[in-house]
């Protein structure tokens, strides 16, 4: 089957969170976020009124943030063995998490997602595209080009007798922070590559200063190019 081309969407000043709410409106519940990290997305959905939002991560990075609101639940588990009953969720979300799973395990992960997803439920996956300012900085710390390509390959080969593609678009997330130092601090602490970051600190800071764009009003930003794919589970 010929590969579909993504629509390129100009979101103006919309953020990644805005895109998620458009792709998966808050009324879609229960919602599972695989690879939820510190749980920011789940909290956003809970604040927006999602009755049941569950975050799952193999690391307990969300534990220090307890207690949670009544609409949130956080679970520490491996996404390749989801600890949920069949057809539990109306929607499953993965934001920059598929590429962290070894490529050989992608079929197992997708199978688990399908198992816990209700009939005609939605799978929404967002992964970085290896282009643009944010990628230029990230690859200095940890070049994820190969694993990102593998994630896109898995999504492009989703079984069309079991899944129906519903959304496919490229967009730019306009990160914004108060100043260059704050943005720099984000990269200096990410991924745990402290030695690499220390060695390249000046180079990273110079690149950040060159790539960041000025915003109207206070703050600076850097563009991250992302791709969203959404699928509906078929019977």
User: Any idea what the CATH architecture of the domain at 7-129 and 144-174 and 225-233 is?
Assistant: 3-Layer(aba) Sandwich
- Quote the beta fraction: 25-35%
CATH topology of the domain at 7-129 and 144-174 and 225-233: Rossmann fold
Shape: globular
Largest sheet: 9 strands, mixed
Indicate the percent of residues in helices. Answer: 25-40%
In CATH, the homologous superfamily of the domain at 7-129 and 144-174 and 225-233 goes by the name: Vaccinia Virus protein VP39
H/E element sequence: EHEHEEEHEHHEHHHEE
- By DSSP (H or I, 4+ residues per run), the number of helices equals 8
CATH C-level class of the domain at 7-129 and 144-174 and 225-233: Alpha Beta
User: What is the C-alpha radius of gyration, as a whole number of Å?
Assistant: 18 Å
- Contiguous low-pLDDT stretches (5 residues minimum) are 63-67
- Roughly what is the average pLDDT, rounded to an integer? 82
State the secondary-structure class. Answer: alpha/beta
Question: How far do the termini sit from each other?
Answer: 21 Å
Number of strands: 9
Question: Would you write up a description of this structure?
Answer:
By secondary structure, this protein is α/β, with parallel strands linked by helices. 32% of the residues lie in helices and 28% in strands. Helix 3 (106-116) links the parallel strand 5 and strand 6 (117-128). The chain starts with 6 loop residues before the first strand and ends with a strand.
SSE diagram, text form:
Elements: E1 7-8, H1 16-23, E2 31-34, H2 40-47, E3 53-57, E4 72-76, E5 89-95, H3 106-116, E6 117-128, H4 133-141, H5 145-156, E7 163-177, H6 180-189, H7 194-199, H8 201-211, E8 213-214, E9 220-233
